[in-house]
């Protein structure tokens, strides 16, 4: 049968419209759902490939367009002009609306016929931050963040985490310098639902295949840990 992909529309919970989400279905037809949260470059080819990888691993992957309130359908590459636009969008992005849109995506993902009624969140870069916040403020049954930025400023929200949260942190991430990294590790060290993994000698976006900082061993280790957590937390 093979992986099936499509684009669906999800109604925003605040009544202000609807947004698109890319969906990849596993070839066995059913599985737990994962809301995959984009980097600052939108739902581009990289994010679609991540969704397809999750589908290959047996998950129903849903990738919502989180920039829809600013500019629907943003799909950027990694040239300097595109990076500049991506950082501008990130600067104007409303985090609270993003959390609400992720909750809407979770609701939709759980209701898909191919799902098993459970759903988690996995995010990268901006999505890593949003995955952590999803663990704090949505009903995601698991949340995994890759190299999220600014988490050291959000540690006061950790008391609201009720389901497993895993963070993958790059030791040489210039967007998360050592003081911020240490604050995150210390701030979450005693939380029973939080797990942090630091990857030595790798930089931001180390899991983005074909990215300039891609590190295959670190990415494979992080991805294995992600799959193990999701399979345990979202088992039918």
Report on this structure.
The protein has 236 residues and is of the alpha/beta class. It has one domain (4-233): Rossmann fold, CATH 3.40.50. The protein contains 6 helices and 8 strands, in the order βββαβααβαββαβα. It has helices at 45-56, 80-92, 95-111, 126-137, 178-188, 216-233, and strands at 4-11, 18-25, 33-37, 60-64, 119-124, 143-146, 165-170, 194-199. It has an 8-stranded mixed beta sheet with strand order 1-2-4-3-5-6-7-8, sandwiched between helices. It is globular, with a radius of gyration of 16 Å. The chain starts with a strand and ends with a helix.
Largest sheet: 8 strands, mixed
- Distance between the amino and carboxyl termini: 22 Å
**What is the CATH topology classification name?**
Rossmann fold
Mean pLDDT: 96
CATH superfamily: Alpha/Beta hydrolase fold, catalytic domain
Helical fraction: 25-40%
Strand order of the largest sheet: 1-2-4-3-5-6-7-8
Shape: globular
Q: Count the strands?
A: 8
**Radius of gyration based on Cα positions:** 16 Å
Low-confidence stretches: none
Number of helices: 6
- Secondary-structure-based class equals alpha/beta
How much of the sequence lies in strands comes to 15-25%
Known CATH architecture: 3-Layer(aba) Sandwich
Please write the string of helix (H) and strand (E) elements: EEEHEHHEHEEHEH
At the first level of CATH, what is the class?
Answer: Alpha Beta
Domain count, please report it.
Answer: 1
């Amino acid at each position: 049968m093979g992986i099936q992909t499509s684009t669906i529309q999800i109604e925003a919970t605040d009544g202000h419209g609807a947004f698109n989400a890319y969906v990849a279905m596993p070839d066995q037809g059913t599985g737990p759902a994962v809301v995959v949260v984009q980097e600052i470059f939108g739902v581009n080819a990289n994010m679609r490939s991540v969704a397809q990888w999750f589908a290959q691993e047996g998950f129903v992957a849903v990738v919502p367009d989180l920039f829809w309130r600013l500019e629907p359908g943003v799909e950027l590459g990694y040239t300097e002009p595109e990076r500049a636009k991506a950082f501008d969008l990130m600067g104007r992005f409303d985090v609270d609306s993003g959390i609400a849109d992720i909750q809407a995506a979770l609701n939709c993902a759980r209701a898909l016929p191919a799902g098993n009624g459970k759903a988690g969140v996995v995010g990268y870069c901006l999505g890593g931050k949003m995955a952590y916040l999803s663990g704090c403020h949505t009903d995601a049954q698991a949340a995994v963040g890759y190299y999220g930025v600014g988490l050291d400023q959000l540690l006061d929200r950790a008391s609201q985490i009720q389901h497993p949260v895993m963070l993958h942190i790059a030791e040489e991430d210039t967007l998360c310098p050592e003081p911020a990294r240490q604050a995150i590790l210390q701030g979450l060290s005693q939380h029973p639902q939080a797990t942090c993994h630091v990857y030595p000698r790798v930089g931001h976006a180390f899991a983005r295949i074909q990215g300039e900082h891609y590190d295959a061993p670190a990415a494979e280790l992080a991805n294995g840990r992600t799959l193990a957590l999701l399979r345990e937390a979202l088992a039918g």
